[in-house]
Design a protein that fits this description.
Layout: E1 9-11, E2 14-16, E3 20-22, H1 32-40, E4 44-48, H2 63-81, E5 87-93, H3 99-108, E6 113-117, E7 139-144, H4 147-161, E8 168-171, E9 177-178, H5 183-186, H6 193-211, E10 217-220, H7 226-234, E11 239-242, H8 244-247, H9 256-264, E12 270-274, E13 280-284, H10 287-293, H11 319-328, H12 351-369
Parallel strand pairs: 3-11, 4-5, 5-6, 6-7, 7-8, 8-10, 10-11
Antiparallel strand pairs: 1-2, 9-13, 12-13
Helix pairs in contact: 1-2, 2-3, 4-6, 7-12
The chain binds flavin mononucleotide.
Length: about 375
């Protein structure tokens, strides 16, 4: 009898030994340190772009250039820190004003994959060779919340570019950060990831046939154990994207108090907020959010409209500033985004320990099913 093993994740000519993509986590929570550790452990490590230029000297005066420069540096650093064959990705939120520049920068700096989230990526930057997208080494992976959205993106790319994405992430409502759902859908069992995933697998099949290529579907949002990974694979996923689990690792780029907030929180502290991005978001309640929820308007200065849809004159706080403060450990001046499972964390471990545990749990689930 063959011993069950965790399958690798293939995206075109790329192969991750472990089928786990570490979700991009802004602001500054997943940079080169976390992403290279994940790449070294066999997964795909992802650098998040929002606010990445905050430590550049010209952040206040030239934020677009600062972001692009910092992104380039982080990609090169992550690649230098990861072994040969280690895969490094970038997460670009479509809600960002400079999403086109950040996509181009990721391709130029040699990111292996670019994940396109927080908004539907129906178009790509004009600066890319749009009539020969298949020639670009970087793989493009939209993040969607439904089969309808996946089909819309694939259909549009097929028509515009005669090319379709290389993989797709379907993110359910248990995820951390911004959610692609209406508030009332978040706790509706009809929108559970288990329900959303099979129709996405079905929707991409027609494109796999048309373009004669495999298009892996990756499940995200509330995937927490190796058993969960196994269950998602049984439903047709080729891999998973996980965020929350990677926060409580030594290598995560956030300061210790950010990680401690995960260790200290209870299930009921994890709440849904209305983000200035215009989407609901999942976060850990603390003194800052309590102030905002009680109607206090925080003072802030907007140097540039980093988010396309942010009405900075009306919003009660600057989300980029609040998340930056939290990343730095100043939790009274900001808050941590977190997935619905964040309360389950009880200690900080290394990325390698986490991956080993996930693989072990996956194999145990596969053995039990034989
Ligand atoms: C702290 C934090 C920050 C996040 N920031 C982003 C982001 O900048 N862009 C994005 O597309 N997703 C973001 N996410 C979502 C993750 O990339 C991931 O897909 C999601 O958290 C998966 O669900 P899980 O946390 O239950 O594993 C964030 C999640 C967390 C917990």
């Amino acid at each position: 009898m063959t011993v069950p093993r965790i399958p690798s994740l293939r995206i075109g000519d790329l192969e991750a030994k472990v089928p786990v993509i570490q979700g991009g986590m802004g602001v500054g929570v997943s940079l080169s340190n976390l992403s290279s550790a994940v790449a070294n452990a066999g997964g795909i490590g992802v650098i998040a772009t929002p606010g990445i230029g905050q430590f550049e000297p010209d952040w206040d005066t030239a934020p677009i250039e600062a972001n692009r420069r910092a992104l380039r540096k982080e990609i090169l650093k992550a690649k230098a820190q990861s072994q040969t064959g280690g895969l490094i990705g970038v997460n670009v939120m479509m809600a960002l004003t400079d999403f086109n520049g950040l996509i181009q920068c990721s391709v130029d700096a040699g990111a292996n994959v670019v994940l396109l989230g927080a908004g539907l990526p129906t178009s790509l930057p004009d600066s890319l060779p749009l009539d020969s997208l298949g020639q670009i080494k970087t793989k493009f992976i939209p993040i969607v919340s439904s089969a309808r959205a996946a089909d819309l993106v694939f259909k549009t790319w097929k028509k515009r570019y005669n090319h379709v994405p290389d993989a797709v992430v379907v993110e359910g409502p248990l995820a951390g950060g911004h959610l692609g759902f209406k508030r009332e859908q978040i706790f509706d069992p009809d929108f559970a990831l288990e329900k959303l995933l099979p129709p996405v697998v079905e929707a991409v099949k027609a494109y796999e046939d048309h373009f004669s290529k495999q298009i892996p579907v990756i499940a995200a949002g509330g995937v927490y154990t190796g058993r969960d990974i196994y269950d998602m694979m049984q439903l047709g996923a080729s891999g998973v994207q996980m965020g929350t689990q990677f926060v409580t690792t030594h290598e995560c780029d956030a300061a210790l108090p950010f990680k401690q907030a995960y260790l200290d929180c209870e299930k009921e502290d994890i709440i849904i907020i209305n983000s200035p991005v215009g989407l609901p978001g999942r976060a850990i309640r603390g003194s800052f959010l309590d102030r905002v929820l009680s109607g206090v308007k925080e003072k802030f200065k907007c140097n540039w409209k980093c988010l396309r849809s942010c009405d900075f004159k009306k919003v009660p706080y600057c989300i980029a500033q609040a998340l930056t403060n939290a990343k730095r450990g100043l939790l009274d001046e900001g808050f941590s985004f977190a997935g619905a499972n964040a309360y389950r964390a009880d200690k900080i471990i290394s990325v390698q320990e986490l991956i080993d545990k996930l693989v072990e749990e996956y194999v145990a689930a596969a053995k039990a099913a034989v």
